[in-house]
Amino acid sequence: xxxxxxxxxxxxxxxxxxxxxxxxxxxxxxxxxxxxxxxxxxxxxxxxxxxxxxxxxxxxxxxxxxxxxxxxxxxxxxxxxxxxxxxxxxxxxxxxxxxxxxxxxxxxxxxxxxxxxxxxxxxxxxxxxxxxxxxxxxxxxxxxxxxxxxxxxxxxxxxxxxxxxxxxxxxxxxxxxxxxxxxxxxxxxxxxxxxxxxxxxxxxxxxxxxxxxxxxxxxxxxxxxxxxxxxxxxxxxxxxxxxxxxxxxxxxxxxxxxxxxxxxxxxxxxxxxxxxxxxxxxxxxxxxxxxxxxxxxxxxxxxxxxxxxxxxxxxxxxxxxxxxxxxxxxxxxxxxxxxxxxx
Length: 343
What we know:
- With about 350 residues, the protein is mainly α.
- The protein is built from 18 helices and no strands.
- Helix 16 runs antiparallel to helix 17.
- The protein is globular, with a radius of gyration of 21 Å.
- It starts with a helix and ends in an 11-residue tail after the last helix.
C-alpha cells in the first residue's frame, strides 16, 4: 500500500518459497497473489499474469474461504481483480471485463465487506481504463457507499477520485477537479502510496480538458517523478502519451516534442508487452501524422499493431485505431496496382 513494491515482492516470494517447501496450498495461493500484484504494479505484466492465474488454479472455495478473514481479502477475488488490469493492458479487454465481473459476483456472494471493497476499487478503475463512464460512475458510487458504511477512508478516497473523473468527462470540470483532489488527499492521508501516479493522471486529464494545460503538464511531470521513485511502472506508458496529448493543447503546440512523447510511450509499452497501451500511443501518433499529411506512415504504423488483437473490436481504443486505418487505406495502396489473376 505504501508503494514499497520491491519489499512487497520479496516478502511474497519468501512466503511462496516456504509454502511450496511445506506443500501448503493456502499459503501458496496467498504468495502467488502477493507476488503477482507486485509484478503487475512494476509493469512486469506477463510474469504477473502467470502468478495470478496460479492463484486462481490453486484456490478451492470450500477449503480457502476463510482466508479472507486472515489476509484482509479473499485471494481469489483479489487475484481476479488484479488480473483484470493485467489482461486489459496486455490487449485482452473482453477477458479483463469478464474477470472483473467475476470478482464482483464472487465478492458479493462471500459477504466479506473488505473483499467487496477491493473488488469495487479495482473494478471502478478498470471501468475508467476502459473509458466506460457510466460503469465507472456506478461502481465508484457503490464503493463510496460501502466505504461510508464501514468508515474506510481508503476506499472512499478511490471512489471519490473515479467519480470526479466521470464528472470531468461529462464537462463538469470544476466539480470533477475538486472531487479528484479531495479523494487523492483522503487516499494519501491513509499512508497509501501506490496508484498515486495514475490518480494524478486523471486530475491532469480533467485539467487539460478544462483548458488548464500547464497545470495538467505539471501533474504528469510529478506522476512520472513518482514512477521513478517507487518503480510503479504499470501506467508509465500512458503517462508519456498523456504528456504528448497535453503538449498538443498548448497555445503554441510543439508537434515534434509531442511526437517524441508518443513514440516513447509506444516503446515503453512494447517493452512491457502492454499491447493496449502501445495501441493507444500509436493511434495518437498516427492521428498526428495523418493531420500532417503522412497518411502512409500512419497506416503502416497501425496495421501490424491492430492485427495482433483477437478481441475487443467494439471498444473505443480499437474503434479509434480502425477509423484511422480506414481513413489512410487509400494512401497506403500503390498508385498502379498489378491486376489480380485467377486460374
